[in-house]
Write a structure and sequence with these properties.
The complex is a heterodimer of chains A (421) and B (164).
Chain A lengths: L19 H14 L7 H15 L4 H12 L31 H19 L1 H6 L7 E5 L3 E6 L18 H7 L15 E9 L3 E9 L4 E9 L17 E5 L2 E8 L2 E7 L3 E7 L3 H9 L5 H15 L14 E9 L6 E9 L2 E9 L6 E2 L6 E5 L2 E8 L2 E8 L2 E8 L5 H8 L4
Antiparallel strand pairs in A: 1-2, 2-13, 3-4, 4-5, 5-9, 6-7, 7-8, 8-9, 10-11, 11-12, 12-17, 14-15, 15-16, 16-17
Chain B lengths: L7 H23 L2 H17 L1 H4 L5 H32 L3 H4 L12 H16 L5 H8 L3 H20 L2
Helix pairs in contact in B: 1-2, 1-4, 2-4, 4-6, 4-8, 6-8, 7-8
Classes of the chains: A alpha+beta (421), B mainly alpha (164).
């Protein structure tokens, strides 16, 4: 195959020294960035050429035969996978600019090459520690930072789903929502059955309570991603009352003879609604244990134990108290996100992990990413808007910590993870 | 390889030149050789339909790579959306009711069977990672028919699932 004419002007021979896995990774990263214009096509073609030669003959004659007999007869100018009827943008590229290279994209490839070199230097030690170098690469621009695995189709299976037992508390425990359910109800009410609803982006538990001539319900919803809207509540002109319990702000609103109290922290939404007095609804709120963080921690530890792994946690400094916790497991993909927020006055510390997600993107400012290698693990430290984040991989688990700038020595926090307990 | 179509020579030459590279690129991204080939073939289909313009492009190689990227994005996006649609359908309590086409169509005398078959086809392509060509060959239909059946079922399920 001929080398593109323009590529002869630029020397790409340094790619010859890279392994096939590294070259494939560069192409994957290019693809992920390619929705903006300005990719260095000459470099990409050079790399693709290299890989094609390494992979051996590809039998284009047989492929051409398949093209002529199977695909070309149904060609209509639109992609086979363009399944919308709406006539949205066809796949064809109407503009290419082979020589216009945006500095940012070129810098991204150059930085990536440097990252690869650095990873290679630390390769053997890191692999001895169980870090799969060629299972993940760090990639960053001025705005974002993320890990990208070599096989985007790998999905961590954190274990089989537990069976749902029959008792209500056990049912709630199984979906991790028991820590947010009220433990008290007014005299004269009896709880009904728990109804669990699992959708692709949320899981919810609902239980109704029945009194002699009035009822109320409790609903807890856990969202996979923060929602811009969690619904609209109808209300009369009675002012909305704010009621704070255990760091959660509940908004109590009335609509004729129904009171509703609702709170939402970006992950969990709690809603109590029914024929209740204000005193009753506040007492129900007060009975919510908010013990989610202990339960969530136990869940993630149990999941990791099933995989033969440990939970690597930092030593939380004095004064920081656990506030909110998040645990989410996608029922379809088995993607898991766990995080714990600690607060000390105005200072925050978030510690968490992702399992099975290859597309986590961390926002960052334009200060350089610092690599801190400790205990044979490379930790990537970067800052954004008054906070500092560190992220690293342990096998297929992506850990992260975010602290308020100036609150803590983040490297000391990193080192505390590996201290014997 | 050639035939009497005037542009066929340049198209053949470009195919020979770019096929291996595009396969290497697509395989790296998709992680599957069969899907990679389908993406490459799909890209050349688009190229051929627009041959009057594309063959005269200042950089047809670049055009092919850009289009290949768009084709793969389409592939990933639509498969992910269809996967969610399948999950939504499987989670509903009225799946059997969903899998019945409403249209009075002479080709759909057995509307429920057609919808069931289309649902299996969609699952094969989306959940099993089959290419459209593989799924079409399993059923003895053309790739074009495979696409049309998937489009029909998608539109039907989206309409039905959005009904209260």
């Amino acid at each position: 195959m001929s080398v593109p004419e323009q590529s002869k002007k630029r020397d790409y021979s340094h790619y010859d020294q890279m392994s096939t896995a590294e070259l494939e990774q560069i192409l994957r990263l290019d693809f992920q960035a390619s929705d903006e214009s300005g990719s260095d096509l000459d470099a990409i073609l050079y790399i693709a050429d290299l890989l094609a030669k390494r992979n051996g003959p590809s039998d284009p004659d047989a492929a051409w035969e398949r093209f002529q007999t199977q695909y070309r007869p149904c060609a209509d100018g639109r992609s086979l996978y363009d399944w919308d009827d709406s006539g949205d943008t066809p796949a064809s590229a109407e503009q290419t600019s082979p020589t216009s290279v945006r500095p940012r994209r070129w810098r991204r490839l150059a930085v990536l090459a440097a990252v690869l070199a650095a990873l290679l230097l630390g390769g053997m030690a890191a692999q001895a520690a169980g870090v799969d170098l060629f299972g993940a690469f760090a990639m960053w621009t001025d705005e974002t930072f993320h890990f990208v695995p070599t096989n985007p189709n790998d999905a961590s299976n954190a274990g089989a789903d537990p069976e749902l037992p029959t008792q209500q508390q056990s049912i709630l425990q199984a979906v991790g929502l028991d820590g947010l359910f009220p433990t008290w109800c007014p005299e004269g009410f009896s709880p009904g059955a728990v109804k669990i609803t699992e959708l692709y982006n949320s899981i919810s538990a609902n239980m109704s309570y029945f009194g002699e001539d009035r009822n109320y319900s409790v609903t807890i919803i856990q969202y996979m991603q923060p929602q811009t809207s969690v619904g609209t509540f109808e209300k009369d002109d009675t002012p909305v009352e704010e009621y704070v319990h255990n760091g959660w702000t509940f908004y109590i609103l009335s609509n004729l003879d129904t009171l509703t109290a609702t709170a939402y922290d970006g992950t969990y939404m709690i809603m109590l609604s029914g024929a209740l007095t204000r005193e009753e609804i506040k007492a129900i709120i007060d009975s919510i244990p908010f013990s989610q963080h202990d339960q969530n921690r136990e869940r993630i530890q149990n999941l990791l134990v099933q995989e033969g792994q440990s939970l690597y946690c930092p030593k939380i400094p004095l004064g920081f108290v656990p506030c909110q916790s998040n645990f989410f497991k996608d029922p379809v993909t088995n993607f898991i996100h766990w995080s714990q927020l600690y607060v000390r006055g105005e200072e925050n510390l978030v510690f968490g992990l992702f399992i099975g997600d290859s597309d986590t993107i961390y926002e960052k400012d334009d200060t350089p990413v610092e690599e801190y290698v400790y205990h044979d693990v490379t930790h990537y430290i970067f800052s954004n808007r008054g906070s500092t984040t560190v992220t690293w991989l342990m096998g297929d688990i992506n850990y992260y910590m975010t602290v308020t700038d100036g609150a803590l020595d983040i490297k000391a926090l990193i080192r505390s993870i590996y201290e014997p307990r | 390889m050639g035939n009497s179509i005037p542009d066929e020579g340049p198209i053949t030459t470009l195919y020979q030149e770019m096929y291996g590279r595009m396969i290497a690129y697509a395989s790296s991204v998709l992680g599957d050789r069969s899907l990679a080939e389908e993406a490459v073939q799909d890209t050349f289909c688009i190229f051929c339909v627009k041959a009057e313009t594309t063959l005269r492009h200042e950089n047809p190689q670049g055009w092919l790579m850009r289009t290949l990227q768009n084709v793969m994005r389409n592939m990933q996006r639509h498969r992910a959306a269809a996967s969610r649609l399948i999950m939504q359908s499987l989670q509903t309590e009225r799946l059997e009711e969903l899998l019945v086409y409403d249209e009075e169509d002479v080709e759909l005398l057995y509307g429920d069977l057609a919808a069931h078959a289309d649902f299996q086809l969609l699952k094969r392509v989306v959940l099993d990672g089959c290419t459209m060509l593989e799924a079409a060959q399993e059923r003895g239909i053309t790739v074009e028919a495979c696409k049309k059946r998937i489009q029909r079922l998608r539109a039907h399920l989206k309409r039905k699932l959005s009904d209260p």
